[in-house]
């Protein structure tokens, strides 16, 4: 249960109910962040337009590279909702979600390509407090993905940091979009 309750359909207004219906049709369930954001109608619309824009704009990088970096960011921030929803989106996109359980071993695991390793390490560096991004790291990413690809990767990691931190702060947790989302959070040990 989130710290701020979701705005129910009856209180969401005509346009809010329409968005709720479309979201349920697309995702199978109403994403909790949408329903919580509906408390502030301008933020709700700004978030919706932004999400649609990011979805349409982020197309230069291979989807697997981009989605792994976003997923890693969600795990480092500790946003169980983002991990749950992101796992579902990766699965629906035909990406290999089984390897997500091994993301902590990305630096040495044969499950990850060199390009994916670079993107995941960059997500770690951008999400660290304080950030640990280096000039050398950015130069290597630019060589691998080009300038536009580097900008896309940077922006998507930053957006996921924003999403994850907002959801975490509001207590928005996983909704069961994807049962495969059980992952270890940074620093957590497996028993």
UniProtKB/TrEMBL annotation:
Q: Which Pfam families match?
A: CMD
Quote the InterPro entries the UniProt record gives.
AhpD-like, CMD-like
Q: Where does the record place a coiled coil?
A: none
Q: Which GO terms describe its molecular function?
A: peroxiredoxin activity
Residues annotated as domain Carboxymuconolactone decarboxylase-like: 51-124
Entry keyword Oxidoreductase: yes
Check the UniProt entry and state the signal peptide residues, or none. none
User: What keywords appear on the UniProt entry?
Assistant: Oxidoreductase, Peroxidase
Q: What is the recorded name of this protein?
A: Alkylhydroperoxidase AhpD family core domain-containing protein
């Amino acid at each position: 249960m989130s710290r701020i309750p979701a705005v129910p359909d009856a209180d969401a207004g005509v346009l809010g109910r329409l968005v709720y219906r479309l979201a349920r049709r697309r995702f199978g369930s109403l994403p909790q962040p949408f329903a919580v954001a509906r408390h502030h109608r301008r933020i709700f619309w700004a978030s919706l337009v932004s999400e649609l824009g990011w979805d349409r704009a982020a197309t230069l990088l291979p989807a697997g590279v981009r989605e792994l970096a976003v997923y890693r960011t969600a795990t480092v921030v500790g946003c169980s909702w983002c991990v749950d929803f992101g796992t579902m989106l990766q699965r629906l996109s035909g990406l290999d979600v089984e390897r997500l359980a091994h993301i902590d071993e990305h630096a040495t695991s044969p499950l990850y390509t060199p390009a994916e390793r670079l993107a995941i390490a960059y997500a770690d560096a951008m999400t660290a407090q304080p950030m640990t991004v280096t000039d050398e790291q950015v130069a290597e990413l630019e060589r691998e993905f080009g300038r536009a690809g580097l900008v896309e990767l940077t922006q998507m990691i930053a957006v996921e940091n924003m999403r994850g931190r907002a959801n975490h702060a509001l207590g928005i947790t996983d909704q069961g979009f994807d049962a495969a989302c059980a992952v270890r959070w940074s620093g957590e040990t497996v028993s």
